[in-house]
Amino acid sequence: MILTGPEITAAAHDGRLTISPFESGQVNPNSYNVRLGPSLLTYTTAVIDAHRANPTTTVKIGEDGYVLQPGELYLGHTLEQVGSDTFVPLLFGRSSVGRLGLFVEITAPIGDIGFHGQWTLMLSPIRPLRVYAGMKIGQIMFFVSTGDIDLYAGKYQAADGPQPSRCWRDVTRVGAVAP
């Protein structure tokens, strides 16, 4: 079951979910709009290596916005801190942003119960696109879970700003000798 807008509001007020800052004007019939935070990360090497930490550079989005370029992966983040120990959150791009040719969070929309923090957004434009800090970029829906809950305690907990991939921490190389 998915939470309706009024239930999202009630859960945000009674503590079953966290949305900070919470703005009632961002509540939709069955989701909550999240805004783009003020910084972006990009990888600085031609080849991104899944077995290593990759260097990144941070870009601050100015008042005039920032132009995203096709063929580049940008890691943005939500302005809001979002999380729940009760509900399963799913984040998707807004249709109005998709109509501008911007893919948002197309490979990893599901959040874990127990994660609390700013969500890292994978942003990929089809054409050059100017984006602005604070613009509504995505929407989060909350689903009721059934069964026992094991709260998230992973490597991205309490994220503040965009987070680069840390999958290299989880890599087990085939044929590698254990230390």
Fold topology:
Blueprint: H1 5-14, E1 17-20, E2 32-35, E3 39-43, E4 56-60, E5 66-68, E6 74-84, E7 87-93, H2 95-98, E8 102-104, E9 116-125, E10 129-131, E11 136-144
Antiparallel strand pairs: 1-6, 2-11, 3-4, 5-10, 6-9, 7-11, 8-9
Order of helices and strands: HEEEEEEEHEEEE
* Structural class estimated from helices and strands: mainly beta
User: What gross morphology would you assign?
Assistant: globular
Measure the end-to-end span. Answer: 46 Å
The CATH homologous superfamily is termed Deoxyuridine triphosphatase (dUTPase)
What is the number of helical segments per DSSP (H or I, 4+ residues)? 2
What does this structure look like?
- This protein has helices spanning 5-14, 95-98, and strands at 17-20, 32-35, 39-43, 56-60, 66-68, 74-84, 87-93, 102-104, 116-125, 129-131, 136-144.
- The termini are far apart.
- It has one domain: Deoxyuridine 5'-Triphosphate Nucleotidohydrolase, Chain A, CATH 2.70.40.10.
- It is mostly beta strands.
- It is globular, with a radius of gyration of 17 Å.
- Strands 1-6-9-8 form a four-stranded antiparallel β-sheet.
- The mean pLDDT is 93.
- The protein contains two helices and eleven strands; from the N terminus they run αβββββββαββββ.
- One of its GO terms (biological process) is nucleobase-containing small molecule interconversion.
